[in-house]
TrEMBL record:
Protein species of origin: Victivallis vadensis
Domain of life, source organism: Bacteria
Designated name of the protein: Beta-galactosidase-like protein
């Protein structure tokens, strides 16, 4: 199947763990063994508690951690096959990890995400935490696809508890107040939030477990660069997996962006060819589609793909996708570490919602071509306004 013809186990060992076929098969086996243990547990629990929705808590940020292949023994997509809802722990970042991790899981299975270890700031953190950080961490997760948050950590350490529980949110009353206000605001706007996350994006980033194994550092680095570059453009973005492509499950995607996906499975290629024949556009950034899952050179034809760099990706996206139904002017720097994140959705009732949040280092001026109502506060904004740091806006245009 892999065309290696090792003949004996000794020859396989001599080839070494970095041989593409060996590396791919071993890590895929490891992921599958991990998933099958959870499948076994899920089946047994369902026999006893059939009415209870099941999930497992993944440290989903490790999916794209460059150095974690040996330790991070899972593929989130494998676990979607037998769990009812998604589950995660997205670390203590409030921007990139929650956005990428939550949207990845929601893309692989469009059911709510349970973050049952919601880190709002680092453990044993001695300093005050701005309330705006807490609010952004809570409210934005709902807009990325979370449905249930259990914040870390509720622990009274007055009687000698674990050191890593020191300084938790239980000991920060203003942060607690902000935490609950964000939840109440999200519940009040539940219909709008659900409508927003259920609006299917027309743009996707290729999620490639194959390149995650065989080209991990370059693929992970490029994926984050692409996501940061797309963040301020105003379009929603999702992930489309190799498995979804192989099944021809293209959803509403019109534009697929592949970054450093040097290796892909051969059955993924058939899906890509079908996607292109049906009018889909594929933009490749970096070294893509050169080898299959066993490291063999690819000779297939993918007529119609386009190339881009991080610096030219914005122009490509704007040329391929329909223009935004409004004009938006904000700072748009390719691969900016802490950008403005701007995404719009047209709800089924015709309303246009625009989610804006400024993850940068200073307040930014934003310009729209029309006035807008901010649904969280109920305030009306003119066509030019200031976007403060870490304050989510949900604008009805």
């Amino acid at each position: 199947m892999a065309g290696t013809s090792f003949g004996t186990f000794d020859r396989l060992i001599k080839a070494g763990e970095n041989h593409p076929a060996i590396k791919y098969e071993y890590n895929t086996f490891k992921w599958l063994a991990f998933a099958n243990w959870h499948r076994f547990m899920a089946e047994n629990i369902r026999q006893r508690l059939p009415e209870v929705p099941l999930h497992t808590k993944l440290m989903v940020t490790l999916t794209f951690a460059e150095r974690e292949l040996g330790w991070s023994a899972y593929d989130p997509e494998m676990l979607t096959e037998f769990f009812d809802v998604n589950g995660n722990d997205i670390g203590n970042d409030i921007w990139l990890d929650p956005a990428v991790g939550t949207e990845l899981q929601y893309s692989l299975k469009s059911v709510m995400v349970n973050n049952t270890e919601n880190h709002l700031f680092p453990n044993v953190y001695p300093n005050p935490v701005p309330s705006s950080r807490i609010y952004a961490a809570i409210f934005q997760q709902y807009l990325y696809g979370a449905g249930n948050l259990v914040s870390w950590v509720w622990q009274d350490n007055n009687f000698g508890g674990p050191q890593w529980c020191e300084g938790g949110i239980m000991q920060r009353p203003m942060n607690l107040y902000t935490h609950q206000r964000a939840i109440l605001d999200a519940n009040r706007l539940a219909n709008e939030i659900l409508g927003f996350i259920r609006t299917e994006p027309e743009m996707a980033i290729l999620y490639s477990p194959t390149s995650l194994i065989l080209n991990r550092p370059a693929y992970c680095k490029r994926l984050f660069e692409i996501y940061r570059t797309l963040a301020p453009l105003g379009y929603k973005v999702r992930f489309l997996s190799e498995k979804q492509l192989a099944r021809k499950q293209f959803c509403n995607v019109k534009l697929l962006i592949a970054g450093e996906t040097k290796q892909i499975r051969r059955n993924t290629v058939v899906g890509l060819q079908t996607f292109l024949k049906q009018g889909g556009k594929v933009v490749i950034v970096g070294n893509c589609f050169k080898e299959d899952e066993y490291g063999r050179k690819n000779s297939f034809n993918l007529t119609g793909t386009e190339t881009a760099t991080i610096d030219t990706l914005t122009t490509k996206v704007r040329r391929i996708l329909p223009p935004l139904p409004f004009k938006l002017e904000c700072e748009q720097v390719p691969n900016q570490q802490f950008p403005i994140h701007a995404r719009y959705a047209r709800l089924q009732d015709g309303r246009i919602l625009l989610n804006l949040i400024n993850y940068g280092q200073k307040a930014q001026t934003v310009k729209l071509d029309r006035p807008a109502k901010e649904l969280i506060t109920g305030k009306y904004f003119s066509q030019e306004f200031i976007l403060p740091l870490n304050q989510p806006f949900l604008l009805e245009l």
